[in-house]
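Example 9 (inverse folding). The structure is encoded as follows.
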């Protein structure tokens, strides 16, 4: 075990290997009942060996060959803005990519198609998601992480959820063994059972996002929450509930990256809820084992125009976007 901290300073004892980790592991094909009961009780569950080593290596290779050399802008997870690749000293991309399913197929077709076929339609990953959601998963968001950037303590529901709040699940798919100090994912078991409140005009993402994060931190302190950062081997998948408090450890290992993909999914029949304010029926594509929504799909000309405008006039564009979000939340408060 090594002692590390979350972005807001909570201590975490992080297992360096699977023997030190007390989080149980489940087989998606044989442990259905036990796995779902564990998920319901703890707000997370780990399924092992869902994606083969060969597939994980293939995706990392395409990332190296196609994404890293790109000099233009791509939408990013941390800011949701169009940004160029930002590298650390190890040449790892530090600003994670948002929505792999929406990447421009003319530029990144091999990467987009491989991730969809081998991850988003992966039989084991989708079977696990289906057991949790009780329906075929509708994937509404995805991300790719390489560098070990920290992610603050939060709940996904603040940003996105099912129309039936709390019925979205998310999955972290490890594309390599995630070392203890390489920005390991952490969760607060049982935190999905607490009513944390919804996004409103006082803690909205446009102007008061920091206030929301401090609300989460205050809850964690007042309840003295347990924090776990489970061991993740190549091809393992950790699912968590949209109300579960989670993030990634604030550590900068200079020897190991944390190549991984996350996806967020709601039941296929449910509508999508954004910022606890905007309910949407989403257009989707059928991937056989799942269906997928493509926000700002860069295969469409109009979305490429928007990306170009964002890239050239970011100040004006994002000022207007924040005003629109604030208006939407105020109208629905």
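The amino acid assigned to each position is listed next.
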């Amino acid at each position: 075990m090594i002692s590390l901290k979350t972005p807001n300073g909570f201590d975490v004892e992080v297992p360096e290997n699977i023997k030190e980790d007390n989080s149980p592991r489940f087989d998606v094909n044989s442990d259905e009942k036990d796995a779902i009961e564990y998920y319901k009780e703890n707000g997370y569950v780990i399924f092992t060996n869902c994606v083969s080593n060969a597939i994980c290596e293939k995706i990392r290779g395409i990332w190296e060959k196609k994404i890293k050399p790109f000099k233009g802008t791509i939408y990013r997870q941390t800011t949701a803005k169009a940004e160029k690749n930002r590298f650390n000293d190890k040449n790892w991309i530090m600003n994670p990519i948002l929505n792999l399913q929406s990447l421009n197929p003319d530029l990144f077709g091999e990467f987009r198609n491989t991730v969809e076929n081998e991850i988003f339609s992966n039989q084991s990953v989708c079977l696990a998601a289906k057991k949790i959601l009780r329906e075929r998963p509708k994937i509404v968001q995805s991300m790719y992480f390489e560098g070990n950037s920290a992610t603050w303590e939060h709940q996904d529901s603040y940003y996105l959820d099912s129309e039936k709040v709390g019925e979205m699940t998310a999955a972290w798919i490890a594309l390599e063994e995630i070392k203890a100090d390489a920005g390991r994912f952490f969760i607060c078991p049982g935190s999905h059972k607490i009513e944390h409140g919804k996004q409103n005009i006082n803690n909205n993402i446009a102007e008061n996002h920091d206030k929301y994060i401090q609300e989460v931190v205050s809850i964690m302190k007042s309840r003295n929450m347990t924090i776990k950062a489970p061991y993740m081997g190549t091809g393992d998948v950790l699912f968590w509930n949209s109300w579960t408090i989670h993030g990634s450890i604030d550590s900068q290992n200079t020897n190991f990256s944390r190549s991984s993909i996350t996806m967020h999914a709601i039941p296929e029949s449910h509508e999508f809820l954004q910022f606890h304010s905007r309910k949407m029926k989403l257009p989707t594509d059928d991937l056989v084992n799942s269906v997928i929504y493509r926000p700002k799909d860069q295969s469409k000309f109009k979305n490429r125009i928007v990306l170009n405008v964002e890239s050239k006039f970011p100040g004006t564009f994002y000022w207007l976007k924040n005003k629109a979000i604030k208006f939407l939340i105020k109208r629905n408060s």
